[in-house]
Specification:
globular; six-stranded parallel beta sheet; alpha/beta; 18% strand; 10 strands
């Protein structure tokens, strides 16, 4: 298996070197290209020498006929989550690169709050087993729900059950001697379309959450900072949370 992976990696490298100049030439000739964040536009400009005026930033959106606000209590009853008075939720791939492990550690640090606060992780991924083991190690497994893969039409119901939604997706891109960190996950607008405040890392593409008072951002990669932001949103009363959502 190691030898096969090594051959695949070498092949991918050869393909990249062979087609890289063609790809660069095609990009340089396009009259206009769109991308999802300012940081990504800067990376494309630097990496492929695309004139900045040809790059248009169009942030991700959500289908607001599918992702709509709803009654959290009704959603929890529908999904069998009534035992929780407060829910922190995440939808997406259960992989370490999504920083779900940091979310679990932050949830452990919130354990001095109400015992009826739960963490619901919606999705599947290669690190699910390791994350379930981490939840046991942290002593919070009984308050963490791993739903597994959920049919797409059911996803909005889970989001409506959340009090706070979390997306810790982060992409780092090198531009010269700088590293730009950005977030452009489609989950963020989907959460927001359901009327749920969102917590993300304090990076390009997510800072609008705090600026527009529709969520909060935490300094990457600090678990303690994430805990402070989550606690602040959980402490809002229902009227304050609805106003933020």
């Amino acid at each position: 298996m190691r030898a096969s992976r090594s051959r695949l990696a070498r092949s991918a490298g050869l393909v990249g070197r062979a087609f890289g100049p063609v790809y660069r030439s095609l990009l340089q000739d396009v009259p206009m290209a769109d991308t999802v964040s300012e940081a990504y536009a800067e990376w494309l400009h630097h990496t492929f020498a695309i004139p900045r005026e040809r790059l248009l930033v169009i942030p991700n959106g959500a289908n607001t006929e599918v992702f709509t606000p709803g009654d959290p209590a009704a959603a929890r009853k529908e999904l069998g989550l009534e035992r929780f008075e407060r829910i922190i939720g995440y939808v997406g791939s259960l992989t370490m690169i999504r920083h779900v492990d940091r979310l679990l550690r932050s949830f452990r640090d919130l354990a001095d709050g109400p015992a009826t606060t739960g963490l619901v992780l919606v999705g599947e991924g290669k690190d699910r087993g390791a994350l379930e083991e981490l939840a046991v190690e942290l002593g919070v497994r009984d308050r963490v729900v791993f739903t597994g893969a959920v049919p797409y039409p059911r996803v909005p119901s889970y989001i409506r059950a959340f009090d706070v939604a979390v997306d810790l997706t982060l992409v780092a891109m090198r531009v010269g001697d700088r590293v730009l960190r950005t977030s452009f996950s489609q989950k963020i607008p989907q959460y927001l379309a359901c009327g749920v405040p969102v917590v993300a890392w304090d990076v390009d593409g997510a800072r609008f959450l705090a600026a527009e008072r529709i969520g909060g951002v935490a300094r990457f990669p600090e678990v303690a900072a994430l805990t402070v932001v989550l606690r602040a949103l959980l402490d809002l009363d229902d009227d304050q949370r609805r106003a933020m959502g």
